[in-house]
Amino acid sequence: MKRFENKVAIVTGSGGGIGQAYAEALAREGAAVAVADINIEGARSVAEAINAAGGRAIAVQVDVSDPDSCIAMAEATVAELGGIDFLVNNAAIFGGMKLDGLLTVPWDYYQKFMSVNLDGALLCSRAVVSHMEARGGGVIVNQSSTAAWVYSNFYGLAKVGINGLTQQLSRELGWRNIRINAIAPGPIDTEANRTTTPQAIVKQIVQTLPLARMGTPEDLVGMCLFLLSDEASWITGQIFNVDGGQIIRS
């Protein structure tokens, strides 16, 4: 029996990149997956590929910065797939993001950025909690980043917020039998990374890693599946680095 047979997962930002890898891995393990993305064409492409491979998936358009859109995402998942057991909060503005400082970034861009990259994880979590409770509990995995521990302007600030959100929500969700943890990737070889981050900086970072290579989306999949599984049934409120040794915390 596959690990997630009869389970239903939502993966936000799964129309490509890391989110796509999470969605496909969950489907391989037997979960029905709501491929949720603001880019509905990308979401449909991923869902169609999952279904063609023998899995079960639907495409759902969502703007994670919009409370009503998050609620509609959850309701569509329940209506079409029967419930919600897992949420992976992966959606974020990264590909094509502005490279600017906290003191100089235009305020309207900063507010939009944070509404997606931080508030979006909370809004999606709020939208699914009652549906998870109806199933007897559930699991949430947030996407953090090693940017939370190094200077990364407002992107890093948002990831600090994701870590705090993970820790704070663990207190509110535990008694509902809902666990929440976060994954903090190091440099990952995605199209968004290749087109957004200056590659000279990426190369410099990779050269300093104990495991001196770029990570891949597949490197993150094992941790995500573990945290969603019953093997992690007594783990909540934690942030797990998957980063080639970039950040060492004592």
Automatic annotation (TrEMBL):
Pfam family, one: adh_short_C2
Gene Ontology molecular function, alphabetical: oxidoreductase activity, acting on the CH-OH group of donors, NAD or NADP as acceptor
SUPFAM superfamilies: NAD(P)-binding Rossmann-fold domains
GO biological process: fatty acid elongation
Keywords attached to this entry: Oxidoreductase
Family listed: Belongs to the short-chain dehydrogenases/reductases (SDR) family.
Name of the protein in question: Short-chain dehydrogenase
Species this chain originates from: Mycolicibacterium insubricum
